[in-house]
Amino acid sequence: MAPILTLHRVTTLEELKSLSYIGADAFRDDAGMSWFFPGGRDHPEDFVVAWKYLLLQDFLDSGKFILAAKVRDTDEGAEGADRHPGRIVGFAVWERTGVCDAAKSWQGSSFSKKLKRIFLDVKIAYTFFLDTPRRSISWSNLKYFGRELDAAKASQPAETWYLSVLAVRTTAQGQGVGKKLLQWGIDRSEEEGIPSTLVATDAGIPLYGSRGFKRTGWLFFDDGKQKQTIMRRDTHYT
């Protein structure tokens, strides 16, 4: 029988550690990340550190939700779920953007998280300017890509569910994990009657297209030689 696939929201820092390895594995050949983190292939340990901090930022940012996908063999049964809780094979980061009351209800934040976010930014600056992982990053390329990504998000409707990251372990790809993680945000957008949006790598376009996402523009980088696809899925309410 097929393994049982479930989703849950990541609410502890302990769980982020395994996700950083999944992110590094899933994106090791990604053109965008290879452009602004060119040393990641030669120094995979630096790439894991980069994903650790990316996920910590998402964990502390208001309005963002990290979902983990876990698989468990069906022959373990209900009792087996306690002994063998399963293994995490993928994750997604969804963000509720906007300023309406519905958006604010998803964006609850706290002073403690804001303070932790400030300290995290200081730690990131130290790590990638002064510590060993600085050998792997191109700050100029990263800043350029960040500006283009901000512009891509700004080109979409203000009120959306935005897919910031979708990562599936390479050994688990093609098994419906990405589809289930994607569907979570689609369901939220359908409930609210607002679009869901994303910026797709070439690898993700077939999945997104199959779920109703349409191209609305391009995100160019590397002096225009490479690009990613800006996509939107309108709900049947809009």
Describe the structure.
- It is a single chain.
- The protein has 238 residues and is of the alpha+beta class.
- It has a single domain (4-233), classed as Gcn5-related N-acetyltransferase (GNAT) (Aminopeptidase, 3-Layer(aba) Sandwich).
- The protein is built from nine helices and seven strands, in the order E-H-H-H-E-H-E-H-H-H-E-H-E-H-E-E.
- The protein has helices at residues 13-26, 31-36, 44-60, 77-83, 101-106, 111-129, 139-154, 177-192, 205-210, and strands at residues 4-9, 64-72, 87-97, 160-168, 196-200, 214-221, 226-233.
- It is globular and about 50 Å long.
- The relative contact order is 0.16.
CATH topology, by name, is Aminopeptidase
Sheet/helix structural class = alpha+beta
Q: Which residues sit in consecutive blocks of at least 5 with pLDDT less than 50? A: 80-84
Percent helix range = 40-55%
Largest sheet: 7 strands, mixed
CATH homologous superfamily grouping: Gcn5-related N-acetyltransferase (GNAT)
